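[job 0412] stage=complex_fold ligand=zinc ion status=START
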Amino acid sequence: MRPHLSVVALLSPLLVHAFELPANLQSPLDSLKHGLGSLRDGANLDSLYHNFDALRQKLEMPAFVKQFTDPVGASPLLSLHRDLVRIESITGNENAVGTWLVEYLTKRNFTVEMQPVFGEKAKDKVAARGGKVSVASDRFNILAYIGKNRTTRTLVSSHLDVVPPYWPYEVHGQKISGRGTVDAKGSMATQIRAVEELWENSEIGEGDVAMLFVVGEETGGDGMVVANNLGLSWETVIFGEPTELKLASGHKGILSFTVNAQGKAAHSGYPDLGINANSLLLPALVALDNLVLPSSKTLGDSTLNIGLIEGGVAANVIPAFAQARGMVRIAAGSPEEVKDTIVQAVNRTGVEGVKLEFGAECYGPVHIDSDVEGFETIPVSYGTDIPHLHGDHKRYLYGPGSILVAHSDHEGLTVQDLQDAVRGYKKLVREALNPSGGKGVVVVEDVGGEGDRVEGEVEKEKDKVEGEQEEEVRVVEGEVITEEL
Ligand SMILES: [Zn+2]
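[job 0412] stage=complex_fold status=DONE, emitting structure tokens
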């Protein structure tokens, strides 16, 4: 937006005199005057820009002026998206964006519940303040719905948190970038606007749709796990994550592991006196790195990543301890089967002093419904909150932007992506409330060619895995897929 600076500088005094200013604008206004003075001295353009930006955010301009000075602010969708992205919300620090969103949704006449995620203590604190949260460390999920009925047929849901590091919102022409613009504030903003528009057009009312925005999705889903205590269930849940505006047909499961090697410290000149833990660890890591894990035609290969290795204290000391941590993205088979394969591979090395541990949070490949006409489908490789929300609801995964840029230093999407996503979510909500496909319709892409529609109660289908090995696939609506080898 900086190219408009000269226009802004010219217009500012006019705008300021044209409107009656509330008292709280005095401070940024003073800063602005100061900034304009500095400009004459050739000083800091950046601070001038930020001063004007602060003023602009507080000033309610007529629509035609806003369209000219702040096209993003003139759009309910783009301004909501910008406001969400501007508030940093790296996992654990979701309070500010949550508090802002509670206010936004309340102003728009939604009934809003805040569900503490730090347990009873935080809950008491919230109650003691009459429902208002002001302590920065407080974390809470947000449930919003129309009217008094918190029980709704459909839920749309996404997450408030983003991955580090934070970098600010920017817009250049049609391109919008910044941390969270895609994952998942693009989904949040477009879900909210979709529900607002459907309500404005009287297409939905009380009891139809609720919105759930959770904390902690990026680090294990603690927010969604707590959301199970809301005491609610739904016919359909529409999850918002970047899917390039396609309906995800499934995503891989996860299993994390740690390999510990216990040796004995000694002087490196006398290796016979010690046991080198790094040397113990290496054969296990080579075995795991070369491991062939099950694949499926829908989700591709299971992949194993050795992500962290540490061992030893100095070059001249025989290391007493070494450790490696990794994660498997499971495309086929259960976490238990993958665990067995890993244990056997490490055992086959015949090295003693090596121990395996597995992370408590693990799940197999996740089946996602993708039976809505007019959407392309896509399998995805990342984890989501879908397996953390219990229940036998139908589930969709959809959102603007690509996962390929989501956690990167060039996260961004286009204005068109956001506008299309609002239309997409509205379509999905309509489908959820008035299903056209009928119960039991599941697209099983692996059977008889791409995207074949299988009518009726689909219970079992044959799926050929790579290497011509036969695999039984049990497709059950609303449950984690189980593929037995
Ligand atoms: Zn996400």
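The chain has 14 helices and 25 strands.
[job 0412] exit 0
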